[in-house]
Amino acid sequence: MTDVTTQQTAHQTTTESADGEQLATPVNVEQAVHAIADRARTASRIVARANRSHKDKALEAIGEALVANQGAILRANQKDLESGRAKGTSAALLDRLSLSEERIAGLAAALENLAGLPDPVGTIDRGQTLPNGVRLRQVHVPLGVVAAIYEARPNVTVDIAGLALKSGNAVILRGGSAAAHTNAALLGIIRDALDRTGLPADAVQTVDEFGREGANVLMKARGRVDVLIPRGGHDLIQTVVSNAAVPVIETGEGNVHIFLDESADEEMAVDILLNAKTQRPSVCNTVETLLVHKDAKAAAAVLEALSGAGVRIHADARIQGILPQGVSADTASEDDWAREYMDLDIAVAMVDTVDEALEHIRTWSTGHTEAIITNNLARSEEFIAGVDSAAVIVNASTRFTDGGELGLGAEVGISTQKMHARGPMGLRELTTTKWIIQGDGQIRR
Questions:
Q1: Residue 66 buriedness (CB in 10 A; 0-12 / 13-18 / 19+)
Q2: Which end of the chain is more exposed for a tag (fewer CB within 10 A), N or C?
Q3: Where in the sequence does UniProt note compositional bias of the Low complexity kind (predicted)?
Q4: CA-to-CA distance for 231 and 157, rounded, in angstroms?
Q5: How many CB atoms lie within 10 A of CB 207?
Q6: What does pLDDT average to over the chain?
Q7: What are the residues whose beta carbons fall under 8 Å from the beta carbon of 437, sequence distance 6 or more?
């Protein structure tokens, strides 16, 4: 998705005549998407007033329905995977697109976990009674209509729908053509479960049938959409950020760094790097650049372990000079420092000091996650203070920058901006606040 147009486009849909003939019917995409948004607004008012028990029952019903209908979901997913392979889609992207019985069970478990979390709606941030007796409360309320544009990630369809419902919002989804069959199956299951539990099906809708034109209109639907969240690669995110007329919460691609300090324990360093790079290389919290202190005792063991796990190393000249026997590496170019590989590749550079590591991170980071492996407390504190990213990790895998892992139930995305929400966006981040001011006839003097 790279181009945005404000021109109204006639979209073709098909209807069936009385004698079974398929007829093409022109659709005004702007009107159609606006109608979806208006229905979402109506639904959002109902969901916003639903109590926790009602919302939790709906989440549990969706999870049960996903498992009960996993055969249909997997058949739809297989169509998308076959189409992706035919188009030459990379293995990393196919992994993100792929569902399995295990992954569907994981989605259902995440919904069950979400149902067990406290309801953020109505929680009080702060309150006080003024000297004149006026009572103040700042309480959390739903955002309203949340839109999400993402690509090739059917799990996001379930995660965002679940988070939006629990936080009292309606959601409009644009999941992209790569996962069209899977998302259609998931949306049908979710909407049916909502209807059966007495919540409006229009609390979860999609504009996928209108393609890019629908996404363009959604981005411009100011006044109908309260916030738009893009989730995907660099091109998609920047297109949305640059062209949207509605408020956007920017989620970031993950050019994630790990700094291997000179004092790092060898066994810990190997375990962390292997997990951060190889457990699931196609996701945004996977490490992409390793910065090695010139005196790091664990350097050789880490490089050997990564190479042995099939990771392709892109190394600067100094790292090339310390490669263990049997380990090879490509020569890193400047482009490698900016790359989000999302595959079994890693860029590796040697630095003389923690300050040099921090300067490299400031130059190339996308502001997602940075980590340090060290046995030096003062060094870890220096690193924490010097990093300006949404998440900073000490002696643990970067794979923990995840809503589920951090106890948020799931996530809409990892926000790399600094306003309202930063880092994994869970329930609380899908709310805003309003002031409740209660008096007994006081007037301002």
A1: buried
A2: C
A3: 1-15
A4: 11
A5: 24
A6: 92
A7: 134, 135, 136
